[in-house]
């Protein structure tokens, strides 16, 4: 029996509004978890977070766009497009050995029947790497996606 893959964000867990299966293991996918974040999840896999260089570049561009008058959400989403975040994150998952191994390990767990919920910081209205990762894991686990 194959498990499931879902995703949510930290604030949804904090406010008990996350829609995840009761049996899902909460897997953080952030490179730099805070103490409070680590307390929310069952485990965190830093290798599945975007690379530091991509995070820094996107955050810097987001701040520039905010200074130009965009709200936080618009600046975040625009910075994603301008830095080609999705393609670069996918490339990271495919080319970085630690990321590739972490995706394979998580996909195997799902294929073996475990249900997981990927967790990071971004809310529903912001573009987020966890949604990309969700599809990649589903594809590798043979549960659909991508």
From TrEMBL:
Domain DUF488, chain residue ranges per copy: 19-140
Superkingdom assignment: Archaea
Family annotation (InterPro entries): DUF488-N3a
Descriptive protein name: DUF488 domain-containing protein
């Amino acid at each position: 029996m194959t498990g499931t893959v879902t995703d949510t964000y930290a604030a949804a867990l904090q406010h008990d509004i996350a829609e995840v299966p009761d049996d899902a293991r909460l897997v953080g996918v952030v490179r730099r978890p805070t103490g409070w974040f680590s307390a929310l999840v069952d485990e965190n896999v830093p290798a599945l977070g975007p690379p530091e260089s991509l995070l820094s570049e996107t955050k810097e561009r987001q701040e520039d766009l905010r200074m130009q008058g965009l709200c936080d959400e618009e600046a975040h989403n625009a910075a994603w497009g301008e830095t080609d975040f999705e393609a670069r994150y996918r490339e990271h998952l495919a080319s970085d050995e630690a990321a590739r191994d972490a995706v394979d390990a998580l996909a195997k767990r799902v294929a073996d029947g475990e249900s997981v919920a990927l967790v990071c910081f971004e809310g529903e209205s912001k573009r987020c790497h966890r949604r990309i990762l969700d599809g990649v894991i589903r594809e590798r686990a043979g549960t659909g996606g991508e």
